[in-house]
Amino acid sequence: METNHLIGYFLAVVVGITLGLVGSGGSILSVPILVYVMSVEPILATAYSLFTVGITALFGGIQKAKVNLVDFKKVFLFGIPTILSVFITRKFVVPSIPTIIFSNQSFTLNKSVFIMVIFAIVMIFASVRMIKPSKEIVEENIKPNYFKIVCIGLLIGFVAGFVGAGGGFLIVPALLFLTRIPMKIAVGTSLFIVATQSLIGFLGDLRPEQIIDWKLLLTFTFCSIIGVFIGNSISKKYSGEKLKSGFGWLVLVMGIYIILKELI
Questions:
Q1: Which long-range contacts (CB under 8 A, 24 or more apart) does 5-11 make?
Q2: In 206-239, which residue ranges form alpha helices assigned H by DSSP?
Q3: Tens of pLDDT along 152-194?
Q4: Using CA atoms, how far apart are residues 157 and 178, in angstroms rounded to an integer?
């Protein structure tokens, strides 16, 4: 086995740990790992990321559900619009992007670079959300704003589908501020939403011409699943807030690095 693959599989464990700890961040790491460490083509890497994050989040969500940290009503409330949006985005929007988006004598912007730059911008936005302390707002007898939830769900699904992310970094704060549930329940609920929309998004990617390295993908996913169990164990002993903040700084640095690498 090549050294870069061994490193990639080790880092896949870290992907799972972040999902187990804070209910998000897995895809923020998995796409750069697949592209820059394991040399997977960027567009294919976003599909691989959806599969890995989907399966890993499902295992993590089941663990949270066992200790009553999942609100399944909120899973359906957010899940339906995000699933529809991510499937449409992966099935129709991403394939419709031209291979060469812009070109002149000094610069060419192709589809792969464009998606990685957009992904890096999403990483930077996500890092800010992670670095800032979470404001947990819990109020009883608050009727959810269903229209706002559906609109935000559609937006999250589009972002997640476009860049191959699970969208947990958007779902967790949305759950906190729109449905007023506690942070730990928001994390568990987010895992089930991320799992569903990621796997549906991956199905939207399956086309006859798509060649998938199942050995690499399943091994990467298995390592990530190991990580989510580790992350769940750590979350029982330590506060995830400081870990989330530290992870946010790492994501910020990586996002800036990707932009510099792809454009300069």
A1: 5/38, 5/216, 7/37, 8/33, 8/34, 8/37, 8/38, 8/220, 9/219, 9/220, 9/223, 10/223, 11/37
A2: 214-237
A3: 888 888 877 787 666 676 777 777 777 777 777 887 888 888 8
A4: 17
pTM, full prediction:
0.76
Cα angle vertex 144, ends 140, 150, to 5°? 155
- 97-137 pLDDT, tens digit per residue, is 888 888 887 778 888 888 888 878 877 887 787 777 765 55
Beta-strand pair 100-103/108-110: antiparallel
- Provide the token pair at 155: 């937006």
- CA atoms of 252 and 121, how far apart (whole Å): 9
Cα-based distances in Å from 38 to 27, 194, 224, 226: 15, 24, 15, 19
Q: For 232-255, what is each residue's pLDDT tens digit?
A: 787 777 665 666 677 678 778 888
Reported as type and span, the H/E element at residue 103 is strand 100-103
Domain positions in the chain are: 3-263
**Residue 181, SS3 per DSSP:** coil
